[in-house]
Amino acid sequence: METFLGVVIGGLLIGGLYALIAMGLSLQYGVARVLNVSHGEFIMLGALTTWSLYTAFHINPLLSLAVCGPAAFALGYVLHRTVYRRILATSPSPGVFESNSLLASFGLLFVIQNVALIAWGANTRGYSYLAVPVSLFGVLFGANQLLTLGCALVVGVAFYVFLARTRVGKAIRAAAQDSTSAALMGVNINSVLALCFGFGAALAAIAGMLISMCYPVTPVMGIPYTIIAMIVVVLGGLGSIPGSFLGGLVLGLIGSLVTYIEPSLTLVAYYLIFALLLLVKPTGIMGR
Amino acid sequence: MQTGKASWLRLRTPVLWLALLAAMGTLSLYASPYTVIMVTNILMYVILTVSWVLFSAPTGYISLATAAFFGVGIYTSATLGGQLPLPLIILTAGVASFVLAALVGALTLRLKGVYFAFFTFGLVELIKHLLLWYEVSVTGVRGRFVVSADNVTIYYIILGILVILLLTSYLIRRSRVGLALQAIGEGEDAAAHTGINVSAVKTFVFALSAVFAGAAGAAMATRWGYVDPYIAFDYLFSFTAVAMAVFGGLGRFEGPILGAVVFAFLRELLITRFPYVYMLVMGSVLVVTILYLPQGLVQLAQKSTWRRLRGHREPA
Fold first, then answer.
1. pTM
2. Which domains can be identified in chain B, with CATH numbers?
3. Are strands A139-142 and B144-145 parallel, antiparallel or unpaired?
4. A209, A284, B3, B38: most buried, per Cβ within 10 A?
């Protein structure tokens, strides 16, 4: 029973992170239509910035949220305003935009990764923050891990409320459904798409900040997280933000179970689920 | 006079290609061993690039899995080396890559393009993890030694693979399959309505393009001597193929070849001393090319571009 609880809680702990990462990607693909394969690089930037601030100035990792979040948002916003908007303007069809923006984000992946390699070097780094055991239903967990889940839930719910209750959120949802009609109804579509891309990047950086509290960080850590985000986005249903959140928790639970049995096969198991999903229900949990 | 000039124009391209082939085919007779090695590396990148273009350029489906097929080739060579003659190993590698790509294609290519892009992006990582687990828990080895072949042999094998690949992509472009592929790229629903078996055509050409990446991997592995899953399944091979092709230009047959030659040469100069700078340059060039030079390097070679840059306007 304790093992079972351990697996479930462990799954939720990692699932919260997955949910956050996937929500960001879902926003970028679901609304801005950018297949952003450089998503994980924003996670990496968030994680390494937090590490630098902590080791150099002893700034509390949670406080570096105030730096990472806005900085990543600005970077994402500017990227969309410059790169993706130009591609959008020059692409004759949505299909061409999809492939060209994918290629551009593939290029950005290597730009960001190698800038980080030059800036930070290739070493694996980590720091110890709140690494004290906490007993939960008789199972021991790191306080930092529980904090991670708490933060992920708060950020996820806050973002959902933002989408559901505010005027900008409404504009984003309208753009997700049909960007052409939304533009005709007076939504400033270029601004909304750039906002979405910025929010996606900010969510990734926040996730990176949380990841750095529990796991080692390197400049090349981004790609596995990007893959996981992609699988979660498909699992939850393409373009559905609540679906991504749910999908993240589900994948976290599965991952925790597989890690308990055979740790080195976690990513393989995710991929197996991905393949099964494509065979049986490609629309995902909450897809239309 | 007029007819003589016309027939020379018609013959010019094939004659130039044949002259190039003759020069390449006798390279080991007049070039230094170092040049042979360098040209082998460049040709390997040309193979990866052209094989990527074979499927992704006409359809618009972006495959990010070149490295996976290349890696399958490398590991075929590593496991079968010494047990089979080299040509058979290379053939096996091609077949293995074909089967893998056909499976991936059958799974993802009947769905929207986004599933294909997502699935191929993670494929390299998937195989790497699977292989690491297998090597650690079943065979108990981390890396493998590959039975090596001499540089001149590898050069001619790589050249041979490239020639077959170029012929294949030339013929595919002019065949029914190539036309079907073109139609799919321009409008998938419309293509399906004209009676094209859209999924089958896509899957077949995707699998065919993987054969060459796999064969190249098998040949190159014999030169490296030692491989492990991290060396064999490296994203950089996918990335460089895509970047080189886009940089050269997808619209023309020569574009990707040109892009690959330019970048592979640049790689020879930079990779050992400034690897990160090299990758940074490649990433930036890919982004800049997409933004400002959508037809790639070959666009510059066309007269109208020069005229437009000098301020002339094309007649509308």
1. 0.90
2. 32-309 (1.10.3470)
3. unpaired
4. A209
